[in-house]
Amino acid sequence: MKVNKELMKGSTVTLILSLLSRKEMYGYEMVKGIETSSGGVFSFKEGTLYPILHTLEAEGYVEAYWMDEGARKRKYYRLTDEGRMHLEQKQKEWKLFRTTVDRVIGEGGA
Q1: pLDDT for 10-65, tens place per residue?
Q2: Which neighbouring-strand residues pair with 74?
Q3: Is 24 exposed, middle or buried, given 0-12, 13-18 or 19+ CB atoms closer than 10 A?
Q4: Measured between alpha carbons, how far is 56 from 91 in angstroms, rounded to an integer?
């Protein structure tokens, strides 16, 4: 089952920052990381990912650098200190949102 794209919109930044908090990654690696970690429920296209990464870079939450890997150059992204603080805020926000939705659904259910 796929998740509605509207539900995904509010969490993409948190997902990307969370991945980058674990290790520095290049774009396709992030796409695969999200897909694998979510058991295939979440899937991003690279065309969706890169505009988000560019915005995060402009906001100072991530920084990019090029690395040679054999004959290929890859653009890697890493979290900045400001990005770590932003991620902490987004995680707190998500926790509040999740517990509140769970509370409402639980109260409104059977």
Answers
A1: 889 999 999 999 999 999 999 999 999 999 998 888 888 999 999 999 999 999 99
A2: 67
A3: middle
A4: 16
Question: What does DSSP assign to residue 76?
Answer: E
**How far is the C-alpha of 53 from the C-alpha of 10, rounded, in Å?**
15
Residue 9 sits at φ, ψ, to 5 deg, of: -50, -40
d(CA 21, CA 105): 31
The rounded distance, in Å, linking the Cα atoms of 107 and 110 is 8
At position 92, the amino acid (one-letter code) is K
Structure tokens at 51: 């505009």
Alpha-carbon distance of 96 to 16, in angstroms, equals 19
How large is the C-alpha radius of gyration of the chain? 16
Q: How many helices and strands, by DSSP H and E, does the chain display?
A: 5, 3
